UniProtKB/TrEMBL annotation:
Positions that bind Zn(2+) 1: 326, 338
InterPro entries: Peptidase_M2 (IPR001548)
A molecular function (GO) term: carboxypeptidase activity
A Pfam family per the record: Peptidase_M2
Native source species: Paramuricea clavata
Cofactors: Zn(2+)
Protein name as it appears in the record: Angiotensin-converting enzyme
SUPFAM superfamilies given in the database record: Metalloproteases ('zincins'), catalytic domain
Alphabetized PANTHER family for the sequence: ANGIOTENSIN-CONVERTING ENZYME (PTHR10514:SF27)
A GO cellular component entry from the record: membrane
Glycan attachment points: 47
List of residues binding Zn(2+) 2: 326, 338
Length: 544
């Protein structure tokens, strides 16, 4: 095998020289195997068929076999005799959770494909999740229609996965155990290179929780006016009434919650559709790229436009699409690349930038308009935080055995009620598997990265706004055309994973600690307004 040949030829050299030769060849091997695996993954996700699923499994197996051999050889190096950056690369090569037994590996891969396929092909009647079902959840204000859509999506997706998921967890846990971890959750948390990740994220959640409580109280109060007799001031909010299939983003009911009606709005959807410069997926992609170019960042390769699937085809099933700027390789920690992806939206979704694009007509800024803008952003960013926090709380406890198979669903709703202050609109049982109705569970994608990214993106935003020498409230800052901001972003990304993430964070922000202070600063005017509104209207805060 290739890696073994490299090791054998390197005999007689210093440990450092052997390691450098080994890594050079490993990069070639994994680049090729990784490319082949990615192509197969892309083919399956853009055309979900049994054939493409089988090809994907084989490509994953080939990659896993190559990696297992590389991992075995990497374990032979004496890290104490290597330079710091070399030792770091060798250490990461040793990390794996792949099953050793080929039959079990194939079974786990096939189960993973089956879970993804069940999710991606689930329909309610003739309606797919996107755009039909998510459209109903976003636009309908009919209580019963929303409830029926919410329930039937879970019947057609998660409920069908329960038994498959149990076996999938068993196999994935075994793979983690065979590679020295107590369970798969420990392996996932290990990617952050800290011993106390749970404590770190808990502190950040507690820092932002008062703001979430105020937002929740305001939203619940407003919904009591819309769904009289269905929503009560001292109760949980029913999960189907928040404009989103998973109640993770509440911006779609902004029309019910807008603090000041008849004020200028940042909703540019209709203007985008009617503007000939922006009214196709390709034009919108070019527009997004232009923002990055204005910062001095690199242009997308021609292959991106040649090979991307920018519009869902009508003749096949496809899996969930991800944004391009979420694909930065070797992020300092898993939350970093998500944060960089969302960082740009904080500059784009500002009156200054949207006016520059000609998408805001007759916009007038004042204190009431500012509260409307902040409310709109909070319904996307703050409403998400407990959801982003709880998903892996559930999954880590499934992996470590604290949540048994017989309580998958009940514990899921305990966490959703505890952190989000919501409840299911109809009784749930252990015949249901509501976690599976969310993409990242069947797709086996860790989720705490999203919570971390929502904190980090505001930390990053404050840093790039300072680099751009912006003066004013943080929520009004756009760094468009600031090459100084672009250089700061590029300097952090350039480090990749070559240093522990606190060094990359320090490069960007001047601090080695993740902090909720910037997100609290961004929303401070809204939080002050929410407190005054609650005291004035005398509605309740919190839940049972």
């Amino acid at each position: 095998a290739l890696a073994l040949i490299v090791w054998t030829k390197a005999q007689g050299q210093t440990e450092q020289a052997k390691a450098e030769s080994f890594l050079k060849n490993v990069n070639k091997i994994l680049a090729q195997k990784g490319y082949e695996s990615s192509v197969a993954y892309w083919a399956f996700n853009t055309n979900i068929t049994d054939y493409n699923s089988a090809v994907q499994v084989q490509a994953s197996l080939a990659y896993s076999k190559a990696y297992a051999e590389i991992q075995n050889i990497a374990s032979r190096f004496d890290l104490s005799k290597l330079k710091e950056d070399t030792a770091r690369q060798i250490k990461f090569l040793r990390n794996s959770t792949a099953l050793k037994n080929e039959t079990e590996f194939k079974e786990a891969e096939n189960l993973g494909s089956k879970l993804s396929q069940l999710y991606s092909t689930a329909k309610v009647g003739n309606d797919s999740l996107s755009p039909e079902l998510v459209g109903i959840m976003a636009k309908s204000r009919d209580y019963n229609k929303l409830l029926n859509t919410w329930r039937r999506w879970r019947d057609e997706s998660g409920r069908k996965m329960r038994d498959i998921y149990r076996r999938f967890v068993d196999l994935k846990n075994k793979g983690a155990s065979e590679n020295g971890y107590t369970d798969r959750g420990q392996a996932w948390r290990g990617r952050y290179e800290v011993d106390d990740l749970g404590a770190i994220v808990e502190k950040m959640w507690n820092d932002v929780r008062p703001l979430y409580l105020e937002l929740h109280a305001y939203v619940r109060y407003k919904l009591t006016k819309v769904y009289s007799g269905k929503v009560f001031e001292d109760d949980y909010i029913e999960a189907h009434l928040l404009g989103n299939m998973w109640a993770q983003n509440w911006v779609n009911i902004f029309d019910l919650l807008e603090p000041y009606k008849n004020k200028s709005s940042l909703d540019v959807t209709s203007n985008l559709k009617n503007d000939q410069r922006y009214n196709t997926p390709l034009k919108l992609t070019k527009l997004a790229e232009s923002f990055f170019l204005s910062l001095g960042l690199i242009r997308l390769p021609a292959s991106f436009y040649e090979k991307s699937l920018l519009q869902k085809p009508k003749d096949r099933e496809v899996n969930q699409a991800m944004r391009r700027n979420h694909s930065q390789p070797f992020g300092a920690n898993p939350g970093f690349h998500e944060a960089v992806g969302d960082l740009m939206s904080l500059s784009v979704d500002t009156p200054t930038h949207l006016e520059r694009l000609g998408l805001l007509k007759d916009y007038k800024s004042d204190n009431e308009t500012d509260i409307n803008v902040l409310m709109n952003v909070a319904l996307r960013k703050i409403a998400f935080l407990p959801f982003g926090y709880l998903i892996d709380q559930w999954r880590w406890n499934v992996f470590n055995g604290n949540i048994k198979e017989t309580e998958y669903n009940s514990k899921w709703w305990e966490l959703r009620s505890k952190y989000q202050g919501i409840k299911p609109p109809v009784p749930r049982s252990e015949n249901d598997f509501d976690p599976g109705a969310k993409f990242h569970i069947p797709a086996d994608v860790p989720y705490i990265r999203y919570f971390i990214s929502y904190i980090l993106q505001f930390q990053f935003h404050k840093a790039v706004c300072e680099a751009a020498q912006f003066k004013g409230p943080l929520f009004k800052c756009s760094v468009y055309n600031s090459t100084a901001a672009g250089k700061k972003i590029a300097a952090m990304l350039k480090l990749g994973k070559s240093k522990p993430w606190p060094f990359a964070l320090e490069k960007m922000t001047g601090s080695k600690e993740m902090s909720a202070t910037p997100i609290k600063e961004y929303f401070q005017p809204l939080q002050e307004w929410l407190v005054k509104e609650r005291c004035s209207k005398r509605y309740k805060i919190g839940w049972p």
